[in-house]
């Protein structure tokens, strides 16, 4: 009896230790995968930069540079070193967040990114709120009333969201809602009359105007952001509604749903309280990935609406052949995707016991 008692107490301890080991191994594999992805991205950007037909010395000094000045800058950039040495210096600078100076502004690339990125985060955040707030209910209703008129309308909206070019939607939105109806403000982030009345703060104008109590400027920012955020959210809305519909259809075919209906539970309560709870973690993952795509995919939206954000900065850098800025932006986008994927995986394992 005593031996049995000792063995029974050892089992939970061994089980906990085994669980910790599995958790450590899982976290280690995930971190290793993220590090390998970032290393691969850095390596890819290095060799792409070397293969492009752009002379970084000419891009910095111009076409009319003397041969002596050209040679001096060539050596300063380390281009006279063997390729493996250049790659090592590139890795060192990249992982120390030193991307050099941007040719378009003359300031450090990291400083430029820190200046323009809050505008993109603000735009993408409003867009994902719109896309999530509409996409999830649309997907659930589409699954609840499968093959009905509601389902067909939701699927049609999703098809339009996937297939319609963002720049065309942006131009049509400006033509209809700004130029014709005057319901929203035009391109830009804020009107010139309000721009210099806001004290520098977080970089997020919606937050800064609220903290400073400048409500006229706040509503002006809302008027500017609502149209580009709605255009940007259209693709996310289509993706979120489609995935939510797919998840819910699978759950609504489970036996526990039939059991709940037999016990007299209403259809709406069965769907929203029981079925949706079982897909909530998957939906969170979809929303997180949509947010990452919005941060990256804001390039066309920011160009059409003259939004002074990350996407427009990257576009100008590409047109100017500013490889320092392009590389810095590319690595930031990659880091965002890796981080969001990592967080999504962690959340999935925390909230869904079946994945542990």
TrEMBL record:
<feature type="transmembrane region" description="Helical">
    <location>
        <begin position="30"/>
        <end position="52"/>
    </location>
</feature>
<dbReference type="Pfam" id="PF19300">
    <property type="entry name" value="BPD_transp_1_N"/>
</dbReference>
<keyword id="KW-0813">Transport</keyword>
<dbReference type="InterPro" id="IPR035906">
    <property type="entry name" value="MetI-like_sf"/>
</dbReference>
<feature type="transmembrane region" description="Helical">
    <location>
        <begin position="166"/>
        <end position="186"/>
    </location>
</feature>
<feature type="transmembrane region" description="Helical">
    <location>
        <begin position="279"/>
        <end position="305"/>
    </location>
</feature>
<feature type="transmembrane region" description="Helical">
    <location>
        <begin position="123"/>
        <end position="145"/>
    </location>
</feature>
<keyword id="KW-1003">Cell membrane</keyword>
<dbReference type="Pfam" id="PF00528">
    <property type="entry name" value="BPD_transp_1"/>
</dbReference>
<comment type="similarity">
    <text>Belongs to the binding-protein-dependent transport system permease family.</text>
</comment>
<dbReference type="InterPro" id="IPR045621">
    <property type="entry name" value="BPD_transp_1_N"/>
</dbReference>
<keyword id="KW-0472">Membrane</keyword>
<keyword id="KW-0812">Transmembrane</keyword>
<feature type="transmembrane region" description="Helical">
    <location>
        <begin position="217"/>
        <end position="240"/>
    </location>
</feature>
<feature type="transmembrane region" description="Helical">
    <location>
        <begin position="325"/>
        <end position="348"/>
    </location>
</feature>
<dbReference type="InterPro" id="IPR000515">
    <property type="entry name" value="MetI-like"/>
</dbReference>
<keyword id="KW-1133">Transmembrane helix</keyword>
<protein>
    <submittedName>
        <fullName>ABC transporter permease</fullName>
    </submittedName>
</protein>
<feature type="domain" description="ABC transmembrane type-1">
    <location>
        <begin position="117"/>
        <end position="344"/>
    </location>
</feature>
